[in-house]
Automatic annotation (TrEMBL):
Protein name: Chromosome partitioning protein
InterPro entries (UniProt xref): AAA_dom (IPR025669), DNA_Partitioning_ATPase (IPR050678), P-loop_NTPase (IPR027417)
Family according to the record: Belongs to the ParA family.
Species assigned in the record: Brevibacterium iodinum ATCC 49514
Source taxon at top rank: Bacteria
PANTHER family: COBYRINIC ACID AC-DIAMIDE SYNTHASE, P-LOOP CONTAINING NUCLEOSIDE TRIPHOSPHATE HYDROLASE
SUPFAM superfamilies found in the cross-reference section: P-loop containing nucleoside triphosphate hydrolases (SSF52540)
Domain AAA: 34-210
Length: 288
């Protein structure tokens, strides 16, 4: 068996493993949206992958989704089939022009129930340009409030930074999901992130709450992954999602195909993991 095949072996359910989460009931109507920020200041921990695939899994359960690309690298936009270099208008314009209608920026994707607010490198200028604005931390919240009634969940894919853009996302959000690679150095940065979230709660958004910490890139064959997972659970208790996202080559394959894994490889263990995460999030009250 080669390495790639070994990585794709789904975890076997054991007698002690918790039971699955129930299939969510369909919604009678859409909106107002619960806004969730996908945040970690460390790059490469699976924020964009989780934003796309959790969004797609929620959409498959009938939730109307708006995915917000809030990273100047535009990876979320690329992952849903857009070319950031060809965008005439992006979320940058929405932030800079309060009179701009968000519907002029929102793009309907080819995937059912998923729209996107795309981004490109222009967004990198927003952090500097917003510094002198009044209520600069609330610019994104004002923009999203104009369309919140049309969606069930708005997922914000944040850049790997704790700068002004991420503070905007936290100020706009009702909840935070923290993707955490099961690796020691990734764990060390969570304390700083939690401190930032607490400052936003205290000064800007008292209703903000941590929906959960999502363990990503887990490799059950390594003692290191298991030790980090144990430390995370010990430190954060029931804030850690029971669903764990295993490392697999299917995720980059799906990214290259510009599809969520739930449509690229619907029967793969990675697809089921994100569907289970969607059910868990709904069961926890993190999504309608």
């Amino acid at each position: 068996m080669n390495t790639q095949e070994a990585l794709e072996i789904p975890q076997q359910r054991t007698a002690n493993e918790p039971q699955d989460f129930p299939e969510p009931a369909p919604l009678a109507s859409h909106g107002p949206a619960r806004i969730i920020a996908m945040v970690n200041q460390k790059g490469g921990v699976g924020k964009t992958t989780s934003s796309i695939n959790l969004g797609a899994a929620l959409a498959a359960y009938g939730r109307k989704m708006l995915l917000v690309d809030f990273d100047p690298q535009g990876a979320l936009s690329v992952g849903l089939g857009l070319n950031p270099y060809e965008l005439d208008i992006s979320i940058y314009n929405l932030l800079m022009n309060p009179r701009l209608d968000p519907h002029e920026v929102i793009v309907e994707t080819e995937f059912d129930n998923i729209d996107i607010l795309p981004a490109n490198i222009d967004l990198s200028a927003a952090e500097v340009q917003l510094v002198g604005e009044v209520a600069r931390e609330q610019v994104l919240a004002r923009a999203l409030s104009k369309v919140a009634d049309e969606y069930d969940v708005i997922l914000i894919d944040c850049q790997p930074s704790l700068g002004l853009l991420t503070v905007n996302a936290l100020t706009a959000a009702h909840g935070v999901v923290i993707p955490l690679e099961t690796e020691f150095f990734a764990l060390r940065g969570v304390a700083l992130l939690v401190e930032t979230i607490e400052k936003v709660q205290d000064r800007l958004n008292p209703s903000l709450e941590v929906d959960g910490i999502l363990a990503t890139m887990f490799d059950s064959r390594t003692l290191h992954s298991k030790e980090v997972m144990s430390r995370v659970t010990e430190a954060f208790g029931d804030k850690v999602f029971e669903t764990v996202i295993n490392r697999t080559v299917k995720f980059p394959d799906a990214s290259v195909a510009a599809e969520p894994i739930t449509s690229f490889a619907p029967k793969h263990a990675g697809s089921e993991a994100y569907r289970r995460l969607a059910r868990e999030l709904i069961a926890r009250g993190g999504a309608p």
